[in-house]
Amino acid sequence: MKRAARVSQINDIDGNIHQLQLCIRAALAIDENISLLLAKCKQIATHFNHSIIAQSELKGFQERLGLPLLSVIQECPTRWNSMFNMIQRLIEIKDAIVLYTSQHTNLPQFTPNDWLQLESCATILKPFEEATKTMNPKYKTKFFNEITKESIESELISLRQDQEGHGAQAQPQIQSFEHDVIQHNQHNQHFHHTDTETLPSTSSGANFSTGRFLQSMLSEMLASAPNGDDEESPIAPIDRFLILKSLIINYIKEKRIGLQEDSLLWWKINPKYFELYRAVRQYLSAPPSSVPSKRLFSGAGLVYD
């Protein structure tokens, strides 16, 4: 995908969720004990994934122990959070796994200390799994260095100047934008309140506190000063270039909206930035991760197999 973009001379940046997952894998690989423990998990998961007889026997142990009938999850390098999901599932059916492996000595055996380490690993990975689901494009230039920020501003100004010849299209753009907002609001009347209420619900107190911590951390990032220079006066526009530059800089200096606030509504109540709307539709509409499409593609592959 990267090569296709570069050959086509399309500017691109890596997805932030992708970068996050690379960090997680690099961190796990550093610790030799964790790497060996994860290798055990993968071997057991592969065993069940390749044997219907093994799955049936494991199900029998679960029924006898009164455990929920859950399958072992196979870790997949291209399926984000699957490492966490595999560990979490093994912990959930721990007793059945212990009974099964005790009768199949060719499989790795987990010691009590191994299970403690797996639980610690799951606790550490849980916030990253949450972040993968909740990250959004509200952070503006929060995670860019100064050189990248300057490059972004220049690109936006150049893009907007290229569109100067289409001034007559400005009003239709605004009307189209307001149509998007109306459609969005109608959808949210049915779902937004329910989603907000169910957001903190979890299966345990530990999960709840972890989720709350993550929400607090992401909210703090949004609430922090955008560039640390909010006290500076806005640039006084002199010519067209400076007008656009002033508009972009002033937008970046705006306080970031909250984690649960509606981005489309913000644009509706701030019409002074409508000149940026084309860039907004082009760049801010891109999701920060391709998890949903990856999951759909992966699911289709499983069905096909």
TrEMBL record:
For this UniProt entry, the molecular function terms from Gene Ontology, in alphabetical order, are: protein dimerization activity; zinc ion binding
Does the record carry Hydrolase as a key word?
Answer: no
- Can the keyword Transport be found in this entry's annotation? no
Which controlled-vocabulary keywords does the entry list? Metal-binding, Nucleus, Zinc, Zinc-finger
Looking at the UniProt entry, the stretches that span the membrane are: none
Recorded GO cellular component terms are: nucleus
User: Domain HAT C-terminal dimerisation: where?
Assistant: 250-305
Recorded coiled-coil stretches: none
Location relative to the cell = Nucleus
Question: Which InterPro entries is this protein grouped with?
Answer: HATC_C_dom, ZnF_BED_domain_contain
The cross-references to PANTHER family, in alphabetical order and at most eight, read:
ZINC FINGER BED DOMAIN-CONTAINING PROTEIN 39, ZINC FINGER BED DOMAIN-CONTAINING PROTEIN 4
According to UniProt, the name of this protein is (apollo) hypothetical protein
Q: Which organism is it from?
A: Parnassius apollo
